[in-house]
UniProtKB/TrEMBL annotation:
Residues 163-173 have a biased composition (Polar residues). This is Major facilitator superfamily (MFS) profile domain-containing protein. InterPro entries: MFS_trans_sf (IPR036259). It comes from the Eukaryota. It is found in: Membrane. Keywords: Membrane, Transmembrane, Transmembrane helix. Residues 154-173 are annotated as: Disordered. The chain crosses the membrane at residues 21-40, 126-144. PANTHER family: SOLUTE CARRIER FAMILY 22 MEMBER (PTHR24064). GO terms for cellular component: membrane. It is a multi-pass membrane protein.
């Protein structure tokens, strides 16, 4: 029986981790951060936004059911446009909870900024800024690999040549 003791194991935030997964972590954390700024700003100020873009007339000009329908229609459109599928398995088996935790912390920081986003620059300028933030988030998502298996992305099975062979230990039973 041969047991392979591969030296390809690497620590979190080591140079090897950053070489293999640094862009993946940057992609997930930055995408979540930027998109949550836009998402929470839009959610908290949606009444003002919907009125400013003409999706929601003044409350006195419609019945409660009409208002409910128009708000639901606008929220459905926003939800459909804002749905971004996340990559569930990007990091190797040793790191997913830590890396997703870092991305989630980044997400919460974006939510805090989005909740505190000052609407004092005017609705038009606010929407332009939030649009630019969303576009930046869109481009950062391309750092997250798609269409590859977890083994291909993690590259943990790639041979290290002679180094792996020299670390193999032969046991006889």
């Amino acid at each position: 029986m041969i047991i392979s003791n591969r030296s390809s194991k690497f620590a979190l935030f080591s140079k090897e981790f950053l070489r293999r997964h640094g862009l993946h972590l940057l992609g997930t954390a930055t995408t979540w951060f930027l998109l949550d700024i836009a998402y929470y700003s839009q959610k908290l100020f949606q009444k003002d936004i919907f009125s400013a873009v003409g999706w929601l007339p003044s409350a006195g000009s419609m019945s409660a059911l009409d208002e409910l329908y128009k708000i639901a229609r606008a929220q459905t459109l926003i939800a459909l446009c804002g749905t971004v599928p996340g990559a569930a398995e990007v990091f190797p088996a040793r790191f997913p909870s830590t890396c997703h935790g870092i991305s989630a912390a980044s997400d919460k920081a974006g939510a805090i900024i989005g909740a505190r986003y000052p609407p004092g620059i005017g609705m038009r300028n606010s929407l332009i800024v939030l649009g630019v933030i969303s576009i930046l988030g869109f481009f950062f998502k391309f750092l997250v690999p798609k269409g590859k298996s977890l083994e291909e992305m993690s590259r943990e099975n790639e041979d290290e040549g002679a180094q792996v062979q020299s670390n193999e230990v032969e046991l006889t039973v």
